[in-house]
Amino acid sequence: MDPSPINSAERRRTGRIMLAGVLFTLLFALLSRGFYHPDEHFQILEYARLKLFGAETTDYMPWEYHAMMRPGIQPFIAWALGRLLLAAGLYTPFALVALLQLLSAALSSAVLIVLFRTVHGELGTECRRRWFLFTGFFLWCMAYLHVHFTAELFAGNLLVLLAALTLRSRQAAREREFRWGAALGLVAGLTFAVRYQAGFALAGYGIWLLIYDRRRRLFAGMVPGVCLALAAGLCADYWLYGEWTLVPLNYLRENILNSHMDEFGVSPWWYYFTEAFSEGGYITGAVLLAATVWFFVRRPRHVVTWMLLPFLFVHFLLGHKELRFFFPALFFAPYFLVLFAGAFPQRIFAGRAWRWTVGAAAAANLCACVYAVATGREDMAFHRMMRDYCRGGSAVVALDVTGDWNLYSYLQLVKKRCMVDARFYMPQNLTLRHTNSPEQLERTARELAAAGERVVVLSGDPALAEKSALPLRKLWWNPYPGWIRRWFNFNDWTRFPVQNKNVYEVRLPAAERPDGTVRSAPEGSGAAG
After folding, report:
1. Which ranges does the record mark as transmembrane (predicted)?
2. C-alpha–C-alpha distance, residues 4 and 19, integer Å
């Protein structure tokens, strides 16, 4: 498709929007806290921490690690950046996550710009091109997704890049087809190596090539590109697990053949239709769904249609469903939305009602962006509180009861019943110990505290200090900023996210300690009186 010419004035205006969008995305990355789904943490960050610092045992790792079924490329990237931070003396888990989010933001911005430059002629007018950039950079759900270092979002960016490069390659001179093929093969191979479920999209892509774009030199170039990407994935898997293994086959065996993924819940086939509305917003979800269906119907021979239809269809068939499985398709949203809007009579967008609608939508979008960065996940506030509590002091022992979920561990029920630890954010001087009963926890806490150790108890009981025979003092923390708690905390609703995630400091009387002192939390650690 030949792009329509863009004059110098429009090029300057477009460049300013791109610059603002890139800066906004990078700022969103710096301000974002936490992860969307625990897999983002346990399948990347915990793996990277294990390779960075080692461990006396891997028993605390989730079952996927022992089954060797998760790709090693993203943990390797996180490990490499962690090594750089360690070498520079700047390492903290928060710094590493910020760096990974900046990397994701940069990749997402670059891919969006590549897609824009590929399809800007198809968009038609300068107004539509501006809307493409506005929705791609500033729509709250796109801004949120752009900055997360997850397999779904990494693969989504690579699928968009693959589609854009494919459209560009169709205008390539014959003598350059081999090089284009190598680039396409490399991107396709990396997409699969990052997220195996993207193989369904790649299968549709391959069929589209065989039907609509049969070029031998292009195919010949794709072979070394795919092989190079798969070899990189294989080496990353060896680095992660310490032995040669075919991780995609392990994934197929565990999650599909053995149906372990269904142990996390099975949903009906219409789940994605309802969940898109409830989680993405009824208006946003409805518009995105309508635009996607419209694109598939009106562009049945388009490469994006052939990539996404099998990808989405297979996920409808699988029993275990989560909205994040569809995130790779969401990166095409700006393209779908602008083309969908172009199908309507343009007089609809010229009236006062449309301007009021855009203004209200922009205000709601701004509120959603502010809420996303202002709150984040409660986990991050907890980890920062524990970092401050442990900073500059002696060793700290954290105790919990097996099965009592907390932000440092949870009870795994798949394949093997055991506690899985989240050690990535854990301070270096903190040790986590699991006990089998409240009575054992109390005995262990008294023994450790009597020996001079600093001891904290992790519990889901918000009233444990009143019930336990241990002398406990609750460490206060809350994930919401002070201005929210002060002005918008109606009926004390901000207590709900943390009421079952409590930390108590054990404070034995002086007579029970060997040095005759009572240790308290360091100043500013969040201890409640």
Report:
1. 17-36, 94-119, 131-164, 184-211, 218-241, 269-296, 303-319, 325-344, 356-374
2. 22
Residues 385, 316 share a domain:
no
479 touches 498 (CB < 8 A): yes
Residue ending a domain, among 319, 343, 367, is 343
478 closest CA partner among 384, 340, 356, 412: 384
Which of 450, 371, 444, 369 is CA-nearest to residue 402?
Answer: 444
Asked if the structure places residue 367 within a domain, the reply is: no
Q: What pLDDT is recorded for position 212? A: 93
Provide the 3-class DSSP secondary structure of residue 369. Answer: helix
Q: Which residues are 398's β-sheet partners?
A: 432, 456
Measure CA of the first residue to CA of the last residue in the chain; give whole Å. 68
Cα 399 from Cα 411, distance rounded (Å): 14
Residues whose CB is less than 8 angstroms from the CB of residue 418 and which lie 6 or more positions away in sequence, other chains included:
59, 411, 412
- 433-435-441 Cα angle (round to 5): 100
Mean pLDDT of 484-502: 81
pTM of the entire structure? 0.90
Domain membership flag for residue 475 = yes
How many residues appear in the chain?
Answer: 529
Paired with 247 in beta bridges are none
For residue 115, the surrounding DSSP H or E stretch is: helix 93-123
